[in-house]
């Protein structure tokens, strides 16, 4: 493989499929399984309107159950492939592969160590997921490169042209012994990036990823950045997200221009059994010809969908009900991983 042209594609580039894992009674979703399955079924119906969907299931029984639910939701079953593998949980943005591609159309599945977000949760099976998918033949002849360094896919954003955006809060928690310069070098080398941009500010209550970038700020085509803003001065997030907005305004493209910024509206606090949940609109998913946007049953849902659509012109905007997801501290982007065009049949 020609390593010199490897790069991490942007999410808006052509895709072969989206990868998810179905929630079941042996995952942390057990207490509210029926509720979260409605989101997964709606997601399956939305994705298969535009491209294929690979669903990881633990066994044939869960497969049959999932198939019933997605059929009832209107999913196009001809575009669905099931793969039976064990897994601890369903956050495939973080346990799935970061797929690099070279100019010859060859792929490298970059498989970082998954530690359950810094050892917060058991992750042995999730850490083996990429290897299991490779062994199951999901990725054809793609190269599989294991990287013995903790990183989750939700922790990095790529513009497809060599720039990676990440957060200091997350990566210093994963690697407290390493400097920013050391971590930047590892990211540049493993992701074949030319530069790493860091945000020092930005967090969401109820987020146990230590401020993953995909809950805060996202690259969009044409040197745009979509980000979660907060306009409520009485909210505890206000100062931190204002500072993050300032950091984003100070960033420059590779040719020295400021990015065009798209601030997202702020949902009213969603509290569950006394706990604030992380309802970020930045956690959306791009697919071929569309952008799937989380909806939380809040008055800001439609405005968020409109702004995300403006930042991704030419794509249909589809809202997916995600309130059940944030009970477990993540949203739409967190449960999915896009697979670049050509990676799977």
From TrEMBL:
Keywords associated with the record: Hydrolase
Keyword Protein biosynthesis: no
Pfam families: PAD_porph
Protein name: Agmatine deiminase family protein
Organism phylogeny: Bacteria, Pseudomonadati, Pseudomonadota, Gammaproteobacteria, Lysobacterales
Source species of the chain: Dyella ginsengisoli
Highest taxon in the source lineage: Bacteria
InterPro entries for the chain: Peptidyl-Arg-deiminase_porph
Stored PANTHER family: AGMATINE DEIMINASE-RELATED
